[in-house]
């Protein structure tokens, strides 16, 4: 059927099945992470911490959090709903995957080089969360990057 045609067009077999599963799995994680952004302000006490900030700064802070959450949510939907299109050979899929990889490489770089180590160093829970996010960003960046490489050069 259409699954066999997709396998033949991608020339992958087992690799294609894994890629479909992997993109869908990442998509679920991204959807949950995107939705979690709605909970962040309350969880981290941002309304109280931002009380002394000028109104514009406060609003930009909360709006940016919402839009980051929305963008991550949409990335997840893309991976869940259109996984077959991300593995089907095309320049567009390659470009989309390269862009997603670049996004998560930038997020990884931020996690490692922008956030101050004093936020997590010497604190068991915060260190575990930091390491978990580093691993998650590596997973996203490398999975999207490998997908882009296969699309564009493989």
Brief summary:
81% of the residues lie in helices and 0% in strands. With 154 residues, it is an all-alpha fold.
SSE blueprint:
Layout: H1 2-10, H2 14-36, H3 40-43, H4 46-49, H5 55-81, H6 83-87, H7 91-113, H8 124-153
Description:
The chain has 154 residues and is mainly α. It contains eight helices and no strands. Helix 2 (14-36) runs antiparallel to helix 5, helix 2 (14-36) crosses helix 8 (124-153) and helix 7 packs antiparallel against helix 8 (124-153). The longest helix has 30 residues, at 124-153. The chain is globular. The chain starts with a helix and ends with a helix. 17% of the residues are buried. Residues 2-11 have low confidence and may be disordered.
Question: Would you count the extended β strands for me?
Answer: 0
Q: Approximately what portion of the residues adopt beta-strand conformation?
A: under 5%
- Write down the secondary-structure element order: HHHHHHHH
What shape does the CA trace take?
A: globular
- Whole-number radius of gyration? 18 Å
The overall average pLDDT, rounded, is 92
Main sheet makeup:
none
Helical region count? 8
> How much helix, percentage-wise, in residues?
over 70%
Report the structural category. Answer: mainly alpha
Give the termini distance in whole angstroms: 24 Å
Q: Low-confidence parts, pLDDT < 50 over ≥5 residues? A: 2-11
């Amino acid at each position: 059927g259409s699954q066999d045609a997709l396998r033949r067009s991608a020339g992958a077999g087992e690799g294609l099945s894994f890629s479909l599963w992997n993109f869908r799995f990442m998509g679920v994680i991204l959807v949950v992470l995107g939705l979690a952004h709605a909970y962040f302000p309350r969880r981290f006490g941002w309304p109280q911490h931002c009380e002394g900030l000028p109104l514009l700064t406060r609003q930009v802070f909360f709006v940016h959090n919402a839009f980051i959450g929305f963008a991550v949510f949409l990335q997840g939907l893309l991976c869940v709903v259109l996984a077959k299109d991300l593995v089907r050979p095309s320049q567009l899929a390659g470009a989309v995957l390269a862009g997603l990889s670049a996004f998560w490489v930038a997020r990884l770089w931020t996690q490692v080089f922008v956030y101050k180590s004093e936020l997590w160093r010497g604190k068991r829970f915060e260190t575990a969360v930091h390491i978990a996010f580093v691993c998650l960003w590596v997973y996203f960046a490398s999975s999207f990057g490998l997908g882009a490489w296969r699309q564009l050069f493989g």
